Every structure is written in structure tokens, then in C-alpha cells.
Amino acid sequence: MSSDIDIRVTGRAGRITFTRPQALNALNYDMCLAIDAAMRQWESDDDIALVVIDAEGDRAFCAGGDVAALYRSGTMGNYRDGRDFWRDEYRLNAYIAEYPKPVVSLMQGFTMGGGVGIGCHGGHRVVCETSQIAMPEAGIGLIPDVGGTYLLSRAPGRLGEYLGLTAARMGPGDTILAGFADHYIPRDRWADLIELLEASGDVAQVAAHAEPAPAAPLAEARDEIDRLFAAETLDEVRATLEAADSELATSALKAVRRNSPLSMACTLEMLRRLRAEAATIRQALELEYRFTWRSMEDGDFLEGVRAQLIDKDRNPQWKHADGILPDAAVRHMLAPLGEDGLTFEGEERVMRIGFIGLGNMGAPMAANLATPGHEVIGFDMAPVEIDGVQMAATAAEAATGADVVITMLPNGQILRDVAAQVIPAMKPGACFADCSTVDVDSARAVAAEAEAAGLLAVDAPVSGGVGGAQAGTLTFMAGGSAPAFAVVKPLFDIMGQKAVHCGGPGAGQAAKICNNMILGVTMIATCEAFALADKLGLDREKMFDVVSTSSGYSWTMNAYCPAPGVGPTSPADNDYKPGFAAELMLKDLRLSQQAAGSADADTPMGQLAEALYATFVEEEDGRGMDFSAMLPRFEKRHRS
């Protein structure tokens, strides 16, 4: 991800920079998810006043979506990857358009397709002398998507039809005329503008730096474009262009003959509907998704990408190339999708969720999923009752018909055993999401079994303890494919406050055990330091005041202090009743050392922490105590 996009906070600005200029900053699925996650975090951060989106390189802000990957999966009969990507990309487009804070986009060079979806829906869209914006999707068998039909339907006169059917490129003046940009600022002034935005958080700086837009050639051609593209059907537009005798008509006709007839006919119909309804961007994106959802199986997308980007023979064999395009074909591509239709935040469909493992963590997690109306079917070996959760007699019964199956289990062997029962019962395309903390090898083995059965798979151990499970403030560390993560992320958002996609299968478990190895080691060091301070006669409160604001700062000191009466309230203030039990820390440390052995990693501090917690739990009185109860242990001990 780091080589594709740079997301950070500088001053009062959330900063998003595309960093793959060698690929014209093409947009992929992981980049979409990263942008969405960052902007959602910044939305509630009062220190961030605005968002600035820009790109490295001179040739392109973002020349479109990375459709080659979708082509590869589509040609193998996997249409889900494309559908998942378009769904979450479109949700991001709507989110940018509706974002409650100012969004500034600076678009040099080419901005096309997916780049339009990122750069052209915010409220402060900047172009420069090199800007070239276009919607060329009809050339690869798509329609102007990512909210492109929304922008085109609002363009003056029939510019929308002209730009959507011909893929004509707009220079800076035309982009402002057509409503794809707001301000013209020469490129050599952008660095100063960004610095001011970062320092001040004042979006008025954008307008203050703007200069009069260059001439807009489309303004002079408006009357002719309106006449040539006034017809309602593709056949009529073609006939008008063929009958006209002008340079513009000849050029437009050449483009119309080159592009997908089905895509162009659907584009015309979509613009007509959106314009008549004065539609919102959500309505436009929902209509676009009907087309793209069907585009691989029933449209020209795969053939278009093959001809333009894969084989590059520029000779696509379009459907309906004979000129006979029945109205039924357009109606089919734009028909509602039923339960597969695009939804947005606040209107997601109800999911059927199987939840297996309803102990101290799983029970409140399942209850939180049931609260907003999801259908949750639970199973546990022990008899339990949870408000809103229907109980099943077996794990397989809980998984039958589920969109997502979530497991919360004690160890890797039990996970493997449950997976063997559950995976055969799951419907094709469903997602298996394991939220247990288990060994990496088990996580990867179960993911492989799920994927072999035609399922999506995510390993997503959690951090936050029982309190976080009850409050819905867990952190999820997820491994698996981007499409799988996208399916379960809305559920993680209900159960937690943060979900991080860490990489492929097993990456979530790897992140969890590395995190908890740090946690175990630092808790021991924190407890040792307090015990030493006591013996040196240093007041605990004074020690906390010094360490919590200096180089000894750590989560175990500042947020989970093991000394009672010092710092924020923690289990130490409740007789060390467990928030995170010492035996669970021992389990995680053992997992870390098992992984270290498999990876041939030298982790001496992790080994020592494991040994100390093993002694504490198995030979002393640590079982059933919080892992911070190491402090009273060290208080009683003397130097050996």
C-alpha cells in the first residue's frame, strides 16, 4: 500500500497523495478502502479542518481504475471481485460528495474514470494548465460511472451526451464549464497553496489563489453540440452525426463508431432519467451499479478491456455491432438488482450472520450485531441466551444460509474442527470471518479451505478485551483479500471502533501476536519499574507524572497503569479483576513464540515474557488475575 498511496495528517489537513505515477496513479481496490478508512477517521477529528487530495508526477492525477485486475478475475468467471470493487468505490464517491468537511482536490494531467470519482465530487476542485479530464468508459464497454453520469447530467445543454459518448478530453477551461472543476490555479502555485491549507485549515485560501479560467472551446461549440446530441436514442444520434457536415460532427461520429453500442445506449438512457428526476449522486451511482454489476457477464467490459489494454489490437468485437440494439438490452442492463442493489451508509441491507463461540467476548459481539437489525444465529457448546440472537442446535445449522459466519474460539485446533463442520454448510460466496486469536498456520489453513470451497475468508483477531466487546469499541486486525474485508467491514464497524486490513490470509493473526508481544513485554517492564521505584522510595504518583510525559511513555503506563490509584482507572483499581486475563496473555505470548520459531526470528524479550507469565499463571497465583497483576508479584520478590 505504501507504494500506491500516502495518507497522513499535516497540520490541520488530512492528506491523501497518489504515489504510483509510473501507473498514471491508477486506482485499485486497496487504495479505495484506505481513502475511505482515513476520511471516516478524520470526519470526527476536530483537529482536522479539511482534506487535500493530490498526486505525484506530472502526467496524471489519476487516469482511472485498475481494470486489468478485474479483467483477469472476470475472464475466469469470477464476477464478484469487480462487483465488490465497484460497490465500495461508488460508496466512497458518494461519501466524498457528502463529506461534512471541505475536500480539496488538485488534478494535474489526466483525470479519468476512477480519478473523476475521487477528484470531481468534492467542493473545491482545482485544475491547472496541464489538466485533461475525460470519461472514456464507453471505449472499454462500461458507462461513465463513479458518479460520472451525475456530473454529465448536470452539465450545460447536451454536453453530457457529447462527453459521455465520445470520451472527449476537457482542458482546464472546459472542465470548469462542464462542472467537473471549480478553480483554475497554475501548477507552480500548488505547493504554496497546500502549505497554507495545512497551516491554517482555511479552505478560503483555494479561491484566493484562483485565477480566471482559460478559454473553454466547448463554450463556442455549445450550439452545435446541443443540435447534434439532442436525440434520445443512439440510432438517432448516429443519424444526426452522419447527416451533418462539420469537423466536430465528423470527429464525434468516429468516436461513436469506435465505442460500445450497448454502453453508449445505456449512457443516453441514464442521462435522460437522471436529468428528468433531478437525481442525487446516490441515485446516479445506484443506477450505474446496475450496469457495472452486469457488465462482465452481459455487457462488453471484458472484450473492451481485452482490445484496449490486454491484446491492444484496438479491434473490439462489441455486442450489437451490427447496429441492431433492441430496447430490451438497455432495459436489462439498467433493471433493478433486488437484494444485490447498491446501498449506502445508513441503508445497508440486513445480513444473516452465523456466530459461533458465545463466551465472554463472543456474546456481547453477537448482541451488538443484532441491535441494528441483523439476523444473528448463534451457537455455543454451553447453553447461553443473548437478546436478539436466535440459537442453533449445531455450528453447521448456525452457518446454513448465512451471509457471514463469525467464529470466536479458544485455539487453532478448535478453529480447524469448527471450520470442518461449518464450511460445507455455507452458501457459495459467503464469508468466513474468524475473530479468535490463534496461530498463524491455523488461520492460513482455514482460509485456504474456505477459498477452495468458493467462500471469502478473513482472519480478524480483536483487541480491546471484554469491555471493548461490550461497548462496541474493539479493534479488528484483519487478514484476507480486499473483497473479503469489504464484506465484513460494516460488521466490524458495529462491533468496534477501528478495523485495519493488514494484508493477506494470516496477516491479522500476525499483527495481533506482534502487538501483544509488545504489550506483554512492556507490561512486565512497567511493573518492574514501579516495584523498583517503591524500593528506591520514589512516590508512585510522581513516577507516573514523569514517565507518562517523557520517553518512558507507553500504553501500559498511560492507559492501563498497573499501580492502583495512579493514572486512569484500570483493573489495578478493582483488585486486578481481569480486563485481559494473565492466562490469555500467556496464550498470546506462546503464539508469538510459536510464530517466531516458524519464521526463524530472534525474540529474546518475547521468550522471557512468555517464561515469566508461564510461571505467574501456572506456578503462582496469576490465573484469573489481570495481566497487570505482575506488579504485586514483583513487589514481593527480591533480586536473585
UniProtKB/TrEMBL annotation:
Its EC number is 1.1.1.31. Residues 506-631 form the 3-hydroxyisobutyrate dehydrogenase-like NAD-binding domain. One of its GO terms (molecular function) is 3-hydroxyisobutyrate dehydrogenase activity. Keywords: Branched-chain amino acid catabolism, NAD, Oxidoreductase. CDD domains: crotonase-like. It is an enzyme of class 1 (oxidoreductase). Pathway: Amino-acid degradation; L-valine degradation. Residues 352-503 form the 6-phosphogluconate dehydrogenase NADP-binding domain. It catalyses: 3-hydroxy-2-methylpropanoate + NAD(+) = 2-methyl-3-oxopropanoate + NADH + H(+); a (3S)-3-hydroxyacyl-CoA + NAD(+) = a 3-oxoacyl-CoA + NADH + H(+). Residues 14-322 form the Enoyl-CoA hydratase/isomerase domain. Belongs to the HIBADH-related family. This is 3-hydroxyisobutyrate dehydrogenase. It comes from Pseudodonghicola flavimaris. The gene is mmsB.
